[in-house]
Design goal:
By secondary structure, this protein is an alpha+beta fold. The protein contains 27 helices and 17 strands. It folds into three domains: 201 residues, 4-Layer Sandwich (Glutamine Phosphoribosylpyrophosphate, subunit 1, domain 1); 209 residues, Rossmann fold (3-Layer(aba) Sandwich); 75 residues, no CATH class. Strand 14, helix 8 and strand 15 form a beta-alpha-beta unit. The two termini are 19 Å apart.
Length: 631
Amino acid sequence: MCGIVGIFNFDGAPVEDQVLIAMRDALAHRGPDDKGVYVNGTLGLGHQRLSIIDLSDAAHQPMKSPDGRIVIVYNGEIYNFRELRRELEKAGWTFRSRSDTEVLIAGYAIWGIQELARRIDGMAAFALWDARDKRLFLVRDRYGVKPLYLWRRRNSLMFASEIKAFMKHPDFAVQVNDAALREYFTFQNLFRNHTLFSGVENLPPASILSIDAQGERLETYWDYDFSQTEPIDAEEGVATLERLMAEAVERQLVSDVPVGAYLSGGMDSGSIVALAGRRLPRMQTFTAGFELSKVEGIEASFDERRAAELMAYTYKTEHYEQVMNAGDIRWSLPRVIWHLEDLRLGMSYPNYYIARLASKFVKVCLSGAGGDELFGGYPWRYYRIFRSLDKQNFLENYYGFWQRLTTGQERKELFRSGVDDKDEMFGVFADVFSNAGNIGFETPEEQISASLYFECRTFLPGLLIVGDKLAMASGLEERFPFLDNALVDFAMRLPVEQKLADLKHMLKIDESEVRKKLIAQDAFSGGKSCLRQAMAHLLPREVMQRRKQGFSSPEASWYRGENADYVRETLLSKDLASADYLNPDFIRETVEEHMSKKANHRLLIWSFLSFEQWCRVFLGGDYLQFAAGAA
């Protein structure tokens, strides 16, 4: 796991070494073990290394092929690199290292860039230079686990693992992308490939960008497809899933440094720990909990430490806990925003703390992300679209749910400049489905498949960006066994009724009763049913019977209680840094409604706090203290 940067000048101008080095050094936290640069006239590549596989100097990057034709900088892990290596050796390649980086060089030389990209099972963002053809390839993994940002200026293209590298370029100026800001305050996420930084894009997942003196060409080599489900015998499906899960975890344990795992109180992380424990006796596990003495309502159950401790005891892990309290947001939020850069889903500062804890003991940590999106872990979302009559009706119903922060009318009141057009955000939402293949929208099964496609293309990438940035802030590599190619391919083929055991019950649910709270979330308990059956013999009964719960801090209570002063002094200040973009009166009304318990605006208040800190850090110059190493 590493950080990569690069500059390509189309006009023939030589790359300035010192600019490239400054950009690389901005990513030192991603790879403190080694660093290097390669400059060849109009091209420059930089690399910061976190050594995971082949710790020797033979794996130094930028890495060249023996004849010097191919040069690569790479961020990620290829879990099937040993299998690929054996194929490449049979094809005549002689390896000089034990690294997966060299497998990418050999794979390109023998198979070409498209075939190489399709064969990779892992997480990767890399830049590969072919000196003979004078062509640069930028490649991103299937699922978008590893980020790769692009910025263009006049006759140059720059790329980097994090946006802060561009800030070291003398021509880069931070400006707010108004379209991205509207998108974020609609969905608490970005569905398009732009960022909050004007002019900065994210290379799409499963993409190859080819660059030479004549220009650029973007192609997609893979996409999710939930439309090709197959009849699978229920018992056979459970047995196959158990085998694929075990193989996925086995593949992702490949490492020359210690591997640990996050351990919540849920089934996904518990399954991974149970399977990994077969290979790693006394593995180290990490849980985040919350001090809840002054928390009320449903948030009083947000602490998962007891269930995690039960699993740690069951699997005999070496277990560590991070307990957070209300005051932790004040110190951490500026640092979280500095590392996160591009605002995304959820109240993510607990992710920062738990990764910081894990990094003190291991360099690699397994995570359960992806299980819900692939196997139907959010059944309370799907019932909303069961009665959709056609695709347009489906889109309108689901769009209403995914406006996590504001509606069209609220956005008109929120933004200082420009009118938020309801059709603009609806168009952004609907466009996600433009490449959904043959997926249908008429039956409940088709509608759920469409929902899973949407969540894998939007919600999951948002979670992965948060995971990557906040783990790499502490030099920690996160891995995601659920995002194993064979496992994902099986999940897409698995019939919906084997993912949702109570599908027939859900079809009878009346949304008006849910809105009136006559039906509790417990009614939607049948998600991931095939996975539950596959893992049932591994997990304690108490864990299997727990209600589905996301990893979230009790902010609704804390904003009204112990953090009330922090919220007010940050958001109701006369010197509001975000006031050039957001209406302070709207923010004030939102805060007061929440404080008086007229509404629960915890997500919106978090987003206001985050964007306020974003403005202070990136527009106000507060980033200087973090860039100097204070983070």
